[in-house]
Design brief:
454 residues; alpha+beta; PmbA/TldD fold; 2 domains; 10-stranded mixed beta sheet; 9 helices; 24 strands
Amino acid sequence: MGDLKELADYAVDYAKDKTDAIIARCMKTSGSQIRFSHNAIDISKRWELLQIQLFAVVNGAKTGFTERAVSSKDDVKSIVDDLVVFTQILPDSQFFAGLEDKTQSYPELKGQYDEKFDDFVEDAPHIINAVAEEAVSAGAKRVAGALRFDKSEFFFRSSLGPEGSGKRTFFDLNVRALQEELDYSGQGLSCGVKPSKSKDDMIAAGEKAGRFSKQAIGAVQGKPGIYDLVLSPAVGANVIGSIPGLANPFAILIGQSPLGDKIGEQLAPDFVSVTDDPLFDGGLASRRFDWEGTPSQKTKIFDEGVLKSYMHNTSTAKMFETESTGNSNLTGWQMKLLVPTPSNIVFSNGDHKVEELLEVSRPTIYVTCNWYTRFQNSQTGDFSTIPRDAMFLIEKGEMKPIKNMRISDNTMRMLSNIDALGNDRTQIFWWEVRTPTIIPTMRIRDCKMTAATQ
C-alpha cells in the first residue's frame, strides 16, 4: 500500500499547478482465470497489474481521464503531462459541475477481503474439476465455462482533500452444461467476495447447470402469445434489475432512462422495494466511498413500489439542487465520464418458495437464463431478449421444455405486473448483468412472447 500511496501522491502533487483539480487512484491487482470445456480445464492464467487512473479538470470545465500501467514516478509524470495536453483540447463538459471537496470520515466495511485467497488460488483447479463432475452427475454430457477471481488494493487521493484506501477479493463462476444436442443446455452461476468459503456454492452451480440441461431434453418450439413468466434471479437481474440503475439523472438527461419525472409515482407493487446499497455485506460493488471521495450511503430507490429518489454525484446534485448520494464513478458512455453509477442493486426478498411460484393455474413460462437483451426504445423501456438455456412451459400441472422464444415487452410494464417474489434472493453478476444485483425469483403477469426468429 505504501508504493500505491507514493505514486498517487506524486501524481496529485505534480499535477496541482497544471490542473484545476485532479483525482489519482493507484491500484494493484492479482488476477486469475480458469476456462474449461468438454469437462476439462483448457486454460489457466494469472496476471499482475499495477495501474494508475487519473481524472483531471482543466480550464474550469474541461475534464479528461486516463488509465495506464505504471511502474515508476517517471511513468506518472509522463502520464500526467499527456492527460493535461489531451484535456486542454477538449470542449467543456456539459455534465461537470464540480467534485467532492470535503474531507470526511468513511463508514466501516467488513468482510470484503478473503484472508485465505492465496490458498484458494491453489485449490481452484480442483474445485473446477469437482464442478464439472457434479454437472455430469446431474445429467450433462459436456460442461464448459469460466471462473475469474482476483484480489486488489488501491490508494486514492483528490487534490481537493479527500483520500482513502481499500482492498477486496472477488470471484465469479459461469457454468454451462450441454447434451449432444446444443438446444438442451443449462446454466449455473456463483459469485461473491470470499472464494475460499464458496466451494459448495460453486459445486451447486455445476449441479444446477447439469440438472437444467437434462430437464431441457426434448424441448419443442414454443408458441407465441401472452404468458405469465417466472424469471430466475439471473433473468430478473437482467430485465427488471436494470430499472433501478436508471434512477440516474445523467441517463435521464441523455434520454436513456424511463424514470424521468416519475419521482413519487407507484411503479411497482407495494411488496417491491429496491435500494442502492454500497455497504451491502458481501456485495461485489461494496465500497466505503465513491470515486470522488464522498462517503457511501444506502439510497432507497423504490420504497413499497414508489420511486423515491435518484442517485447523484457532486455534479448532478448541483444540477438538481440536492445532495450527492455517493454514487460517483467513471463510466463508459462512448468515453469515460464521472457520472452517477449504481453500486449493489438490492431487491427486497419475497415470501414464496420457488416451487410455489411454479404452482400456477395460468399458462406460465419459467425462464432460467437469457442473452442478447436489446432495447428498441430506452426511454420507454421497450426491449427484447432471448431465453438461451432451459425454458419450460407450465400448463395443466405439467412442466414441459420449450425453445426458440423471445421475450418482447416493456420493462416498466413488467415491473408493474410483478405478481410474487421468491424467498431465494441471490447475488447475480456475469456478462449480461454488469451491476451486482441481489434479487429473488419473480413471477410476472401477462408478458409477450414471440418466436425467436421474429
